[in-house]
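Entry:
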Amino acid sequence: MNGLVKVLLGLGGLVAVSKLFQQGDERSADDKADTRSRRTPRTFISFDFDHDLDAKTLFVGQAKNSRTPFTVVDASLKRAMPPRKWVAAVRERMSRCDLVVVLVGKRMASARGVHTEVRIARELGVPMFGVYVNDATDSCRLPPGLRRGRVIPWTWGGIAESIDGTVESAA
């Protein structure tokens, strides 16, 4: 965990971090209330456990903030297990999800678990999109099956639109 994240988490948790992401949020209170009143999509968060765990924690935590224009129910796995059991558990949890959000970091090319999760999402027909994290850009390698046009920068408005669009197009 980098030093800034440790300090922020120690000094007020995700409330302090959320203030960093609230700048530039010009949506009206009515727009935010409308977004929150919709059904909360059950979301599997796919991420590189070795390099992007902090980003996943911040992403899920921020989605719980009342000022964020969307919510998610995190269905990702939170503990290690033998490979065969892990694949079965991912498949079972993902089959109950409305969408998959892939947190795309700079070292995604080495994240075999993410590659497997993307493959399972495609096999199950669970819609997905990616969000660039930890200074990743559109020049980083993506897992096979995740299209470049389905990966967006980390902005709350953009994520809310992607969640709404992904859930609506799958309905």
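The chain has one domain: 27-170.
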